[in-house]
Design a protein that fits this description.
- The protein has helices spanning 14-19, 36-47, 102-105, 208-212, 278-283, 318-335, 337-346, 349-374, 490-498, 500-510, 518-525; strands spanning 228-229, 258-265, 268-275, 289-296, 303-311, 383-391, 398-404, 408-413, 416-419, 472-478, 484-488, 528-529, 536-543.
- The chain is of the alpha+beta class and 544 residues long.
- It has a 6-stranded antiparallel beta sheet with strand order 2-3-13-11-8-9. It has a 5-stranded antiparallel beta sheet with strand order 4-5-6-7-10. It has a two-stranded parallel sheet with strand order 1-12.
- The chain has a domain at 258-421 and 469-543: PPM-type phosphatase domain (Phosphatase 2c, domain 1, 4-Layer Sandwich), CATH 3.60.40.
- α6 (318-335) packs across α8.
- The longest helix is centred in the middle third of the chain and has 26 residues, at 349-374.
Length: 544
């Protein structure tokens, strides 16, 4: 029955069998060629591009006649590669020959029964209209060996490079020079191999060109720096231990452990340093020494000032007093540097001594006034002050020292140290009248009465005695070429006078050769001596 409930007839479903019958002409395999090549040619003809002629196909050989190839993938039949003769041992290795791809040779890969491609050839890759397609080698072929990039195997073969910088390890090609009578064959080939590869005899002398360019040592040997000299190592550590206490509201008052400076003007080279002593480093106290280096003016009219000061011992504001003393003398010298430079060049010794004496007293007077403002005694807020003036004029070799207080001024000349600190005559006053100071009778015969110890009130006409001041020191000396002038505070002057080994060490370091650098000068000035642990501040001038 049908879906409507009617009884089926005998020929009702004939159209179904006719549609899917094997003998029907409109289905199944077509009579015309319907391969991938034919479809590709049809597409090319549709777009209007003329296909390239197909390469002739080689005659297929039975699979049994084709010997296996180690580089072939299983299931592919292609003619074997021809045997190549081995390369000669004296020839460089040849670049492997690049064989054409499978589709360029016209080989036809085998197809599996279920691939649906039948016996059709490769999908028309060799007939592509673009000749640039299909240039990669076959998957089973070995990739071509790239050309060598290093120097040639034979050193006699010159290396030729394109214009531009020469690669590392090569030298540009230099044609050998020949005379008119020399034949080209007689010229020796130029080796372009790296210099490190050329064998050099051990006993062969260097060529004359290298012998003439052999560097010579212009600086004589100097002994190495040492940590300490004397009978034994110092008690304190060589490096800083504790930092001084800091006030958050007075951070400008902090003092660095070490100050290092230097310059070169005219014929003189300056090195200056100020280092905290071992004792202050251990106790965490600030450096009591202060250092100031300044240049006033320009050109040959310039004047260089080196000022160093040391605050009073065991006072809380010693480092502040030392810094203030350097600042005051720096301002005074800076305002008068033109006149001072003229007096130095003219060698006006009297004018220099009196003028610098007034500037020094004025600067130290500022310290006494500052102590009165702070409500402390002048002895607690004072400092020793030592200065050095260096003119920048190369024609002037006069060096002027002035100052007040302890320290040292030395000169290293001809390998020997000279202590040229100015000597101040001892001021001896008259004898003090008192008990036992005079005889019982005068030359006239008058007898003296006994001192009953009755005090008398002071006279209103007598001036209040000021505290004794340190004498002013001044020296103007003319430097010679090769001299070394050293100005220092008591922290370095005392061990230099008391320990001969320190003087010998500095003599060996500074007597010959160029002036030391900043780091070397710092190492030289902080050579320690047992028993001397104060701050050290020094300024040395080398004369060219």
């Amino acid at each position: 029955m049908s879906q409507q409930g009617e009884k089926p007839t005998g020929h009702e479903d004939d159209w179904w069998g006719q549609l899917y019958d094997d003998s029907t002409e409109d289905t199944g395999p077509a009579a015309v060629a319907d391969s991938l090549d034919d479809r590709f040619a049809s597409a090319v003809g549709t777009v209007g591009v003329e296909p390239a002629p197909a390469l002739p196909r080689p005659e297929r050989k039975p699979e049994a006649d084709v010997p296996p190839h180690p580089e072939r993938r299983p299931g592919l039949d292609a003619p074997p590669y021809p045997e190549r003769p081995p390369a000669a041992p004296d020839r460089p290795p040849a670049v492997p020959e690049q064989r054409p791809a499978r589709w360029e040779r016209g080989d036809t890969p085998r197809q599996s029964p279920d691939s649906g491609l039948g016996q059709s050839p490769s999908p028309g890759l060799g007939q592509s209209p673009d000749p640039g397609l299909g240039q990669s080698p076959a998957p089973w072929e070995a990739p071509p060996t790239p050309p060598p990039t290093g120097p040639p195997a034979d050193p006699s073969v010159p290396a030729i490079f394109p214009p531009g910088p020469t690669p590392p390890g090569f030298r540009p090609q230099q044609p050998p020079s020949r005379t008119s009578t020399e034949s080209p064959a007689a010229a020796a080939p130029v080796s372009h191999a790296p210099a490190s590869q050329a064998p050099v005899p051990q006993d062969a002398p260097p060529p004359p060109a290298l012998q003439s360019r052999t560097p010579t040592l212009s600086v004589p040997y100097q002994p190495p720096t040492v940590d300490y000299v004397g009978s034994g190592p110092p008690t304190y550590d060589a490096e800083p231990t504790a930092l001084p206490p800091a006030d958050p509201d007075e951070l400008d008052d902090l003092v660095a452990d070490t100050v290092l400076d230097g310059a070169r003007y005219g014929t003189s080279t300056l090195r200056a340093v100020s280092v905290r002593g071992d004792s202050a480093r251990y106790r965490g106290e600030p450096r009591r020494d202060s250092l100031l280096t300044a240049r006033f003016g320009t050109g040959e009219q310039a004047l260089v000032l080196v000022a160093m000061a040391t605050g009073a011992r065991a006072t809380p504001g010693a480092h502040l007093a030392a810094a203030e003393a350097c600042q005051w003398i720096g301002r005074a010298v800076g305002r008068s540097h033109v006149r001072l430079a003229e007096d130095i060049r003219a060698a006006r010794r009297g004018d220099l001594k009196s003028g610098l004496h007034r500037l020094t007293d004025r600067s130290l007077g500022k310290l006494r006034a500052s102590a009165a403002e702070q409500g402390i005694e002048p002895e607690e807020y004072t400092a020793s002050l030592r200065c050095l003036l260096l003119p920048a004029d190369p024609e002037c070799r006069t060096r002027v020292f002035f100052g007040v207080g302890a320290g040292g001024l030395f000169r290293l000349r001809d390998g020997e140290w000279q202590d040229i600190e100015p000597r101040v005559a001892d001021a001896a006053g008259e004898a003090v009248v008192g008990f036992g100071s005079l005889p019982h009778e005068t030359p006239e015969g008058d007898r003296l009465t006994m001192d009953l110890g009755i005090t008398t009130p002071p006279s209103p006409y007598e001036a209040i005695a000021e505290p004794p001041r340190a004498p002013f020191r001044f020296r103007a000396s003319v430097a010679r070429p090769g001299d070394t002038l050293l100005l220092c505070t008591g922290g370095l002057a005392e061990p230099l006078r008391g320990e001969p080994e320190l003087a010998e060490h500095l003599t060996a370091r500074w007597s010959e050769g160029e002036p030391p650098g900043l780091a070397a000068f710092l190492a030289d000035t902080q050579v320690r001596v047992k028993g001397y642990a104060d701050d050290r501040t020094a300024a040395a001038v080398w004369e060219a």
